[in-house]
Structures are given as structure tokens and as C-alpha cells.
Amino acid sequence: MESLLRAFGNLFSPAGPGAKLSILIYHRVLPEADPMLPDVVDADRFDAQMGVLSSLFNLLPLSEAVMRLKSGSLPARAACITFDDGYADNAEVALPILKKYGVPATFFIATGYLNGGIMFNDKVIETVRRLSCGEHVFPEIGMRSLTGNREKTDVVRDLLSFLKYRPLSERQDFLDRIIDSERIVLPANLMMRSDQVRLLADSGMEIGGHTVNHPILNGLNARQAKQEIGEGRIALEEITGQSIRLFAYPNGVPGRDYGREHIQLLREMGFEAAVSTSRGVARRESDPFQLPRFTPWDIPLTRFSCRLAGNLLRTRILTA
After folding, report:
1. Residues pairing with 273 in the sheet
2. What is d(CA 67, CA 62) in angstroms, rounded to the nearest whole number?
3. Helix (H) or strand (E) holding 276
4. How crowded is residue 298: how many other Cβ atoms within 10 Å of its Cβ?
5. Is 85 helix (H, G, I), strand (E, B) or coil?
6. What CA–CA distance (Å, rounded) separates 257 from 219?
7. Rounded to the nearest 5°, which phi and psi values hold at 279?
8. Could you report the per-residue pLDDT of 115-164, keeping only the tens digit for each?
9. 3-state DSSP call for residue 66?
10. How far is 188 from 191, CA to CA, in rounded Å?
11. What is the pLDDT of residue 310?
12. What's the whole-model pTM score?
């Protein structure tokens, strides 16, 4: 199977000017499976996936891959691994596995959540996780019966869908009402500490910007967007002692979450490349500030491998 997929990759992602660059997105790598997070890989799955990826692809640091993509010197079956947001398990669980296989990765970190913070989506997940079983009324999505993890996962999905593009203050007020009424205590160890970011950098991993507070850039004015991007970058440079030249757009859907003005802003600020969440592969003619990324969610390794191969055939890439 692997030899067949490698031959497929050589055909559809050859070396040189016609090369294609696959960029994968991860967020978390859990120590063990969590029924409230069914789509998030655990350590065993991630270990197996890194074994497959290191066998099928030539894995490169993102900065090197971008440079070689521009120059037409990428190897066949080129790929990069990226992580978004800055979860503590990136350092605690993912890093040892990456080092085991000699896999480079780039970590895009929202600095406002370091050292005890919690991101909005995790606030929703962890709040619902801690709700008592029984009937609960959510005015925005109706009455729900929470009898187990499946029902709680459904509520999380519906709440995130309802709240995702609401103003920050409205989202926070909504959650605070539930947290206060249920006397919920949220975890303070989901995100990395500064020393863990430094550990990643010192281990040879790349660090990239992801704003301070992970806002949808299209929801900000020009001054706010520049402040979010710039202050996040400064914080990471102070932590790592390295220049931050790569960026990941929060949420990352071209046109909906960021626009041409944000691409221009990153150019003016001296960034070298940025990644979106538009699926597909990057080519030599791709905009280096709108590099596509994707995640193959499949659990069976054969389907995981086939999804990786299938992504090489994508031709349409959304752009802002």
C-alpha cells in the first residue's frame, strides 16, 4: 500500500517546478481519547500518523518549504506539519512524537491565552462538559436533555455554530451566565506556558504568529488588526529570541475570516508567508500569504493515507 501511495505521490507531486506542497493542520494531541473531543487525535493515533507521513512524504520546515516552493526546488511529495493556537499538549504530547520521527513542525500561537488562559471554543466545551445531567434550557438553541457525552457534544456543536461570529462581548456574556449559575470552574492548564513555547523553539520547531486573542480579522478595524498581529508577534519574539516571519489567520477561511487588506498588512509588517484553512495544495504560482492547509480526520490509517493522496488532486483553492 505504501509503495503504491508513494508512486502516486511521485506522479502527482513531482520534484522541481511542478511540485505541490501539502500542509497539514493540527490543534491538539491528547494523551488519550476524549469522547467530548471525537475529532481530536490522541497520542497513539498521532504517533501512527507521523509514522505514515514520515514514510510517504518528504517533511520540511514551513519556512524552508515556502522558500523552495518559490524557487521551484521542492522535493517530490513535499509536506509540512502545522499546529494552531498553542495548546499545552503540543509540547507535552506532540513534541516527543515529532522528535521520535524527526519531523519538523510549525506552531502558530495566540499569545493572549498563554500561562493559564482558555480559548473561547474550549470555554464552551469545558462548560458543557461540567453541566449536570438532566434538562437544560439554552434560549439560543432550545431545551436540551444532557444524558451523556454524545448529547453534550451535540450541544457544544450547536452553541459554537450559534456563537462563532457573534461579538466577543455577547459570546462572553452568554458563557458567563452559564458558568455563574452552575458555579463551574474551568481548567487553567489547557494552553502552553511561555517556557513550553521556548522549549519548542529550542527543540528546532518553528514558531509563528496567530494574533493575541484569536479574533476574526474581518471583524476588526485596521488599527485593531495591526495591533493584534503586531503585539502577538512581539510577545513571541520576546519568549523565543527569534524573529517571527510566519502567520496563520485565525479561523482562516479566505474572504470570510480575513481579506486582501490583511494580506497586504502582513506584507508591510515583513512577514514572509501566511497559511489559511482553505483545503488543497500549494503550487509555485500560489500566493505565499494564502497557503492552503487541510486535516485528514480519518481514523483508519489506510483512509488517512488515501485522504492525503486525494488532497494532491485538488485544483480549486479559495482566495480572499
Report:
1. 246
2. 9
3. none
4. 14
5. strand
6. 8
7. -70, 160
8. 999 999 999 999 999 998 888 887 778 788 888 899 999 999 998 888 88
9. helix
10. 8
11. 80
12. 0.93
